[in-house]
Design goal:
Order of helices and strands: HEEHEEHEHEHEEHEHEEEEE
CATH superfamily of the largest domain: Dihydrofolate Reductase, subunit A
CATH architecture of the largest domain: 3-Layer(aba) Sandwich
Shape: globular
Number of helices: 7
Radius of gyration: 19 Å
Bound molecules: NADP nicotinamide-adenine-dinucleotide phosphate
CATH class of the largest domain: Alpha Beta
Structural class: alpha/beta
Strand content: 15-25%
CATH topology of the largest domain: Dihydrofolate Reductase, subunit A
Helix content: 10-25%
Length: 291
């Protein structure tokens, strides 16, 4: 039986929730690192889905940062408006990453500009714990993250930050170089609460800080064929004197509707890059699964 996209996504979710079990899906063989083989190649859409999500589902610990940006490196207009920057398949992708994560993290700038819900409305799967990193300025208690009850919300702040909105669980950690909660301290605080699969959804300052702190296992940037001209920058890192000092990333590039997803592996001990489904040599390592 050839998997369709819905069945493949259900398999990914099942593997995420019971990583130690053998999983069953029509003749599909999944290795502990999320690599997979199938006697009959699935259609390209399903193959891409398995390649992208099985390694994340199979691993119990990862930190992944994602930004959707224009060709000229902006994640929002000067007004802060960022909705519809990317094509619909990337929105589905964001919701899938949420479904695979234990926690989804955003900076205070994003919480304020977007008033996001950070739930998994577009795909099957449970919404993660929603985490806001509080900055110097207060967060409005009326934000949907604090009022909609759609999933638990946690604020992580520094001792110097504005007080948390009343009634919202709040954790205080050390500050990083930019004064926001230090990424390593954020990840440690989440891990202490059993939240080890962490999706850092934005904005640019927050993903950049996590990258610079060296805590990201993966960085995904989805580039839309759009020129915004000016606006909120995507990655902002310390300047380099020469291009030879710039960070060149390894990974793979996947079309996502009209956009292109750059899926960059930053740490090899993070979730493994997906393997070719036809790799006979490694087939012997695989666990046989079937649904
Ligand atoms: N395209 C995408 O993938 C995507 C994803 C998420 C968000 N966004 C967009 O990104 C924007 C927010 O990103 P961001 O990088 O500005 O912030 P952010 O990463 O969401 O928040 C980072 C921190 O920066 C501080 N901050 C925000 N604006 C600042 C400013 N102008 N000067 C100094 N500190 C500031 C905030 O604390 P304070 O409390 O001190 O202000 C916060 O602690 C929004 O417009 C949102 O729509 C786009």
């Amino acid at each position: 039986m050839v998997l369709d996209a819905d069945a493949a996504w259900r398999l990914v979710l099942a593997l995420r929730d019971r990583p130690c079990d053998r999983h069953t899906a029509a003749d599909l063989t999944v290795r502990p690192d999320g690599g997979w083989t199938a006697p009959e190649p699935p259609v390209p859409e399903v193959r891409a889905l398995l390649d992208l999500y099985l390694p994340l589902a199979a691993s119990g610990t990862w930190v992944l940062g994602h930004l959707g940006q224009s060709l000229d490196g902006r994640i929002a207009c000067e007004s802060g408006h960022s909705a519809a920057l990317n094509d619909d398949p990337n929105l589905d992708h964001l919701h899938r990453l949420r479904a695979l994560a234990d926690a989804v993290v955003v900076g205070a700038g994003t919480a304020r500009a977007d008033d996001p819900r950070l739930t998994t409305r577009r795909v099957a799967g449970t919404s993660p714990v929603r985490v806001v990193l509080a900055g110097a300025r207060p967060l409005a208690p009326g934000l949907r993250l604090f009022t909609d009850g759609a999933a638990p919300t946690l604020v992580i702040r520094t001792a110097a930050a504005a007080p948390c909105p009343p009634g919202v669980p709040c954790v205080t950690v050390d500050a990083g170089p930019d004064g926001a909660p230090a990424p390593a301290a954020v990840c440690a605080a989440l891990a202490r609460r059993g939240l080890r699969r962490v999706f850092v959804e934005g904005g640019g300052r927050t993903v950049s800080a996590f990258f610079e702190a060296g805590v990201l296992d993966r960085l995904q940037i989805c580039v839309a064929p759009l020129l915004i001209g000016a606006g909120v920058p995507a990655m902002t890192l310390p300047p380099v004197a020469a291009l030879g000092d710039a960070v060149r990333l390894d990974g793979r590039w996947l079309p996502m509707g009209r956009d292109m997803l750059f899926d960059c592996v930053l740490r090899q001990d993070g979730p493994a890059a997906a393997e070719d489904g036809a790799d006979d040599e490694r087939r012997g390592l695989a666990d046989r699964v079937g649904v």
